[in-house]
Amino acid sequence: MTNAFSVNSRVLSFAGVLLFVALRVGAQATETANVSAPPQIGAAQVATAPEIVAEAAPAAAPFAFADFTWLNGNSRQTVFPLDGPVFSGQFTIDAGYNYELSNPRDHTIVGTTAAGRHNELQITHLGVGGDFHYKGARGRIMTQLGLYATMTPRSDASPMRGQWSLADAYKYITEGYGGYHFDVLNGINVDAGIFLSYVGLCSYYNYENWTDQASYVSSNTPWFFNGIRIQIFTSDKLKIEPWIINGWQSYGVFNQQPGLGMQVAWRPSGNVAAVFSAYGGKDVLGNSDRVRLHTDNSLLVKYHASKRSFVSQAAFSLTVDAGCETGGGVTCAGGAKTTPSQYFLGAMLYNRLWFANNRFALTVGGGVMTNPGRYLVVTPPINGATSYSLSPYFTQNPGDEYWAWDTTETFDVLVSELVTVRFELTHRWASVPYFAGPKGVTPEASPGVYSNSGPPGSMVAGFEPDLQQNENRVSATIKVRI
């Protein structure tokens, strides 16, 4: 009873603070119901920070012909307080509280790239950095502090090949690249380093997303690439972006050849956006015969906008992914028992409504996926397991079944275009036990004390992780972008 009271008081205290903020914003919304909508993005204020084009002529700035702050995976800023002639600074923080209703004893949340700990106030991501731009030279640095600094590198097996501990070298960098802008067509950027992928539509920064807990298509596809990116803006409505990269969300090369890919972003009007991505590489450590192919396709449509209506905006997003692995003991379509099928099929659909002159927003949606072989399933951190160690408690062998679905309901209080307070309900289901149950996924050393025993992911005598097929989670977070 004491523990339950402690949990409830903590939830109520944090929710109470956020609710107070929400009520204050609601009062402001009532007072400003007839105020016009925020101004459209100007020519020098490109919607997505990584695509800022230095020295671009106003008429040629990419995607600046309309207001795209409504897009999922895109910043909703129209003002940039730290913008400067040579360096445009940026600060972002995502902090909050997650409660998994199974109440795992070790406070570990399984299978998510957005929240790592249960029943605790934690910093998910804290980023400090910005963009350098001067006479065509360009660069960007953004730190990766908080839970992201450990949750992201552990899902990359490539550093286990060779020396110099790449995971340690890069774990505090979410974006770090330099390059040059050429005044050709509507601008061409050539950058080398670590950059965000935007495969699966959602941004790595949840401030830019409609939800925190992304569906499986986003959670199980790359958040970043390490290599060379060439952004070719053929017009202010079309971007063609080839990639030459180390591999699939990897700091290093898994075998002897890099990965190749491309993304095409097309925005024919201010109400429609489409993104198409394709990738190919050899991304199984130590198996140079296995080839991975993947395609990602998203459509976003804003179907309502009115300054006079209580529902001020409405939009939806649809994403469909398909991919497979072939060679090295598996095939895309399957065959004999020695060559089982190994593929990924997934989709997610979200609908978002904005209210009271864009002061509040409600997003409802979810997704489904199937992934025989589990080659894109996030390895559960059972006894400290990583994508390299894997886990004998949750196998990821060729042909192993895995299909899943999820739903998310998200309510946002848009305090300002720089601050978001978010409340979210998440339900996820998998065809096999995968999510943390009451006993958790960490061995118990003594009553109330947990420790990772032996090598990461190894078997522990007398220990059995508590895994279940369902997860139900509530969260309350605050996000600040300056």
Question: How would you characterize this protein structure?
Answer:
By secondary structure, the chain is mainly β. The protein has one domain: Porin. It has 4 helices and 20 strands. The protein has a 16-stranded antiparallel barrel. Strands 16-19 form a two-stranded antiparallel ribbon. The radius of gyration is 22 Å and the shape is globular. The two termini are 42 Å apart. The N terminus is likely disordered.
The name of the CATH topology is Porin
The helix count comes to: 4
Shape: globular
CATH architecture grouping: Beta Barrel
Q: Name the strands of the widest sheet in spatial order.
A: 1-2-3-4-5-6-7-8-9-10-11-12-13-14-15-20
Number of domains: 1
Low-confidence stretches: 1-59
The CATH class? Mainly Beta
- Average pLDDT taken over every residue: 88
CATH superfamily: Porin
- Radius of gyration using CA atoms only: 22 Å
Please give the alpha-carbon distance between the first and last residues: 42 Å
Pattern of helices and strands: HEEEHHEEHEEEEEEEEEEEEEEE
Strand content: 35-45%
Task: Jot down its keywords.
disordered N terminus; two-stranded antiparallel ribbon; single chain; about 10% helix; globular; about 475 residues; 4 helices; mainly beta; Porin; 16-stranded antiparallel beta barrel
